[in-house]
Amino acid sequence: MEQAAIFHRPGMNFSFLVDESTLGIRIRTKKNDVEEIVLIHGDPYIWEEGKWVVDKTNMYLSASDSIFDYWECKITPPHRRIRYGFELKNQQESYLYTEKGFFPEVLYDCDYYFCFPYVHASELFDAPTWVKDTTWYQIFPDRFNNGNPSINPSDTLVWGEAEPTPSNFFGGDFEGVLQKLDYLVDLGINGIYFTPIFKAKSNHKYDTSDYFEIDPQFGTKDDLKRLVNACHQRGIKIMLDAVFNHSGYFFEPFQDVLKNGVQSPYVDWFYPHDLPLQGGDRPNYETFAFVESMPKLNTQNSDVKKYLLDVATYWIKEFDIDGWRLDVANEVDHQFWREFRTAVRAEKSDLYILGEVWHESMPWLLGDQFDAVMNYPFTSNVQKLLASQTITSQEFMDSMTTVIQSYPERVLDTTFNLVGSHDTSRILTECQEDSKRVKLIYTLLYTFMGSPCMYYGDEIGMTGGRDPGCRKCMEWESTKQDLDLFNHVKKLIALRSSEKLLANEGTFQFINHSLTKLVVYRKYTSTKNVVVLINPTNESESYILPFSIDNQEVRDEWNNSTVQMPESKEITIEPYGFSVLSFSGQLI
């Protein structure tokens, strides 16, 4: 038994609250090395005749990646406190694994064991439940629809007449979004994520000059209220983009430091290396990257903190928004985000807090900061599987299993899944304009765990490279839209809405295999499975369903029909095809 591969640590993603009284416990072992694991557990204060009293619970193999197996079980400590260890067995060996190492047999002294001191309901990860059923649509306001030309910036171009640049404007606004809400409802959207709408010089608005004002090119505060109300009437949630890592160059406190230097009361709002401030390729003050027009805010300064928390609560109180997306969230200190969560949740208890973090994000997802992060590991793996086609289906499942096992169970239900954004190339461009592969990508997006987001225009086959190419004007002429792709996305969203196992009910599991090139996973409960099979290749692939489904009805959810399953349980998936099946059989 490879002891060096065996790993557990209390807390984080290895022991976590599943609900107010249930604890989920995981352990990692070398792949195909351990055959059985029993959890040894008990209340640390219950002893009899000088021996600690223990219970035993069998753990099950929940997932595997290319290197490790992951085992799991759920228990309800009767007195909310627990000590525990692991009895690991294969045909040759048996060990007890505890906080203090490996032992040849079970020990009846709880001081050796791992500890979960107390199950506090207040520490349950409590992301808003509505997010599990939300299908998002990201709008870059200047490029979605120009509904009120009278408020266009002076240098606004004719809609779509030129390629996007970092500095041109096309006049998209709130009125334009209002005019297209029926389009979004028809698609099945019930959540809109807006990139920044606050006053700024740029077309992207990530250089805020006034956090309490709407940029005039989008409309007025009354226009925003009308938009939010109209969305809420249609069951659509609204999430705004907060840029609290840095301000814009024309933010008044920064202008004051530029003008008055050391005499400015706002010097400590920023991070000057020396004064006077100087921009250029390497500014003498901290910035986002090295962008001189985006000076970094000192969120550990009490005045900055108060200002930004007032901003965060103002737009909730006055406009009833439903979520905040937090730009460059990983470069802001954790304590600020803890206070941010307390402040915004006091205003709206089910507000969604989404952080932009592109890497492993467990430190932000402990229940005291964010409800989710933008799931760029999902984006990357999907693109490698179907766009660049640089990984196999098994490598995709292995990699995503590693991601999934990096977080507690509840975290993945509300993570923000995307395959394109204002920061990435258009997904059709990534797929060399092969719509068959794009359809498969969306099939993955809308049948996977998490809360899926569509970047505006991707549903009709818009193209474009990285910023600024991905920020073209929305194409509203139906003759220039891929309506087949649109209808595919629309059908997927409707299926996700009607089949709750595809909207984060039940448990997710990859069904690993080595004899086929398909990606196969299921969402399941004790009474039902929904199995998704995706063929990322240009050849037909056969697969034998590893389920006991004798005499069970098998439904083809995509075609809304009954499948006549052969005795062999073998099915064939066409090149770049997929299938979504439901039945009540058990995994063999």
Any key phrases for this structure?
588 residues, alpha+beta, Immunoglobulin-like, eight-stranded parallel β-sheet, six-stranded antiparallel β-sheet, 12 helices, 22% helix, globular
Describe the structure.
It is a single chain. This protein is an alpha+beta fold. The protein contains twelve helices and 32 strands. Among the domains are: 121 residues, Immunoglobulin-like (Sandwich), CATH 2.60.40; 81 residues, Immunoglobulin-like (Sandwich). The radius of gyration is 26 Å and the shape is globular. The mean pLDDT is 96.
How many β strands by DSSP?
Answer: 32
The oligomeric state is single chain
How far is the first residue's CA from the last residue's CA? 26 Å
Poorly predicted segments: none
Question: What is the overall pLDDT average?
Answer: 96
What would you report as the Rg, rounded to the nearest angstrom?
26 Å
How does the overall form come out from the CA principal axes? globular
- CATH topology name of the domain at 3-123, in short, is Immunoglobulin-like
Name the CATH class of the domain at 3-123. Mainly Beta
CATH architecture of the domain at 3-123: Sandwich
Largest sheet features: 8 strands, parallel
Summarize this, please?
The protein is an alpha+beta fold and 588 residues long.
Question: Layout of SSEs?
Answer:
Layout: E1 15-17, E2 23-30, E3 36-42, E4 47-48, E5 51-52, E6 55-58, E7 60-64, E8 68-75, E9 82-89, E10 94-98, E11 101-103, E12 114-116, E13 136-139, H1 174-179, H2 181-187, E14 191-194, E15 198-200, E16 208-214, H3 221-233, E17 237-242, H4 252-260, H5 302-319, E18 323-326, H6 334-347, E19 352-355, E20 372-373, H7 376-386, H8 393-404, H9 409-413, E21 416-418, H10 427-430, H11 435-447, E22 451-455, H12 483-498, E23 507-510, E24 519-524, E25 529-534, E26 541-544, E27 547-548, E28 554-556, E29 561-563, E30 570-573, E31 578-583, E32 586-587
Parallel strand pairs: 13-14, 13-22, 14-17, 17-18, 18-19, 19-20, 21-22
Antiparallel strand pairs: 1-2, 2-8, 3-6, 3-9, 4-5, 7-8, 9-10, 9-12, 10-11, 15-16, 23-24, 24-25, 25-31, 26-30, 27-32, 28-29, 28-31
